[in-house]
Amino acid sequence: MKKNYDIKFNSPKLSSERINSHKDFDALLASFEQKKPPKKNRMFIRQMTWVSGAIAAALIGIVFWFNRSSVDVVEQYQEKATAYFKEQSFINPPFENIRPSFASYTVNSTDGGTYEYGKNSKLIVPTAAFQDESGQVIEGDVNLYYREMHDPVDFFLSGIPLTYDSAGFSYTLESAGMIEIYAEQDGKRVRMVPGKTIDIELASEINMPFLSVPPKYNIYKLDTEARNWVYQEVDRISVLASESMSNDPAIAAFENQIKIIEDKAKQAIADIEQQIPEPIMPQRPQQRNSDLPSLELDFLDSFGSSAEADAIREKYEGAIWQLSAKSPAVPADAASEEWEDFELKAQGEGLYQLSLIKSGRRLELLVEPVLLDGQFAAALAQYEEDMLAYEQAVAKRKDALASEMERVESEKVAQIANIRADLQQSQEAFVNTSPSQKQKVVNYFKASSFGIWNCDRP
Questions:
Q1: pLDDT of 7-65, one tens digit each?
Q2: Contact 241, 257 (CB under 8 A)
Q3: I need a surface site. Which of 25, 143, 191, 252 has the fewest CB within 10 A?
């Protein structure tokens, strides 16, 4: 575009006549007004402005359409992805026939027991811990299945996700060991009885500074319906000394000091338990069973005059001594025998061992004190009162023991921390060159239900 600039250099000096001719500013303004641009040109400018605005609006609309379209595509993709993953199994192993295998144990449901897995892992199953779908406690043998997962390969092959959503944030879990546990009877899954727990001792390895306190881990239970891990409790970790550490004389001395401190703490707890004796649980009275023979003998006067004897006489006054169903049978010739002496020893659970003696001959029987109907009703009412008092005494003792044990444990931890600090100072060069290493540990927690449990930290 041609630029019609009229640039004048070194203009001549204005004359006084020219200056005077322009002193009338009103006339000068009127002359300027007469020379305004034609109306046609102003319309052209307005039209061009309108067209430019229309073009800009169209361009903005196009850009907005493209952006809105892109947002729609992303939202549609996210909806499809969400729907797709909801349809997939939450636990999704990549290979059907390659995954961490289970160990199997045959557990007597009534008795429970302790079962070892590997070198240091352990499961402690309580008595009467299983029930069926209707809530009935199961008897007989149960097949218990258990497996551990420790490394990324195990986690990958199991297909178990290690993401944890909490308060709107998603975390990746760092695992110190994961387990899966379930039980069956006759091919049918069973459940844990509410209130019962299986004590798990899970051996694993974690990265931690040399001789340092283990990092904090938590226990999580996988909720497959909510598709998330649910926090349960803090993971209690115990460090196992490695062989390389034990070969160092300083480490060996440290471990010996730790053992001395722990032994003293155990003895202190044992002393506390003796100072706060456990209440004696009252024995439930037994009603006479007419199908079992009773003995027409009076033992109560033979217990002597001690305080214990008086308590026995008070407890069993009016009782009949009945032959227990667990006792050996009475020989036919012994029924009419006149015995010279006897011994009566408590066996627990309301049973007594009765030894009948005559001329070197001994007859060993199991007997139990039983009550007639009228006496039994009164004794049962008294028993219920005694049980309430017993439970209160147990709770009181538990609180007292907990307070004392917490004090002993705090002292123990402080003493161990002091000698650990001393050792770390003497081993500072080693610590600086080896700030972190694999340490064998045992994770302690209680599984209150079957499923997948994880020792983790986000």
A1: 555 566 666 666 666 666 666 666 666 665 555 544 444 454 445 555 655 555 555 55
A2: no
A3: 25
pLDDT (tens digit per residue) in 418-432: 887 777 666 554 444
- 166-180, 362-376, 379-393, 417-431: which is most confident: 379-393
Query: What is the sign, positive or negative, of the torsion defined by CA atoms of 85, 91, 94, 95?
Result: negative
Using an 8 Å Cβ cutoff, are 178 and 454 in contact?
yes
User: What would the mean pLDDT of 175-190 be, rounded to a whole number?
Assistant: 91
For the record, the structure tokens of 272 come out as 């506390």
Rounded (5°) CA angle 306-308-312: 115
CA distance 375 to 287: 9
Extract the tokens encoding 13.
């000096």
Between CA 252 and CA 245 the distance in angstroms is 8
| Cα gap 115→334, rounded to integer Å | 47
Phi, psi of 376 (to 5 degrees): -65, -40
**And the tokens for 242?**
């490695």
Rank 45-54, 95-104, 165-174, 430-439 by mean pLDDT and report only the highest.
95-104
Q: Residues with Cβ < 8 Å from 367, sequence gap 6 or more?
A: 295, 321, 322, 323, 324, 327, 351, 352, 354
User: What's the pTM value of the predicted model, to 2 decimals?
Assistant: 0.45
Name which of 414, 417, 411 is nearest 213 in CA terms.
417
Pairwise CA distance, residues 421 & 178, whole Å: 32
Nearest-10 crossing angle of helices 249-275, 373-426: 150
DSSP, res 75: H
What share of the chain in percent tops pLDDT 70? Answer: 69
CA distances from 441 to 82, 162, 217, 241 (A): 39, 21, 12, 9
Residue with tokens 């002359």: 31
Q: In this predicted structure, what is the pLDDT of residue 431?
A: 44
How far CA 438 is from CA of 202, 310, 379, in Å, comes to 16, 64, 62
Q: What does the alpha-carbon distance between residue 149 and residue 452 come to, in Å, rounded to a whole number?
A: 10
Q: What average pLDDT score do residues 72-101 get?
A: 69
Q: Do the bridges between strand 320-323 and strand 361-370 make them parallel or antiparallel, or are there none, so unpaired?
A: antiparallel
Contacts of 454 (CB under 8 A, 6+ apart): 173, 175, 177, 178, 179, 219, 220, 221, 222, 229
DSSP of 320-336: EEEE-TTSPPPPGGGTT
- Are the C-beta atoms of residues 242 and 347 closer than 8 Å to each other? no
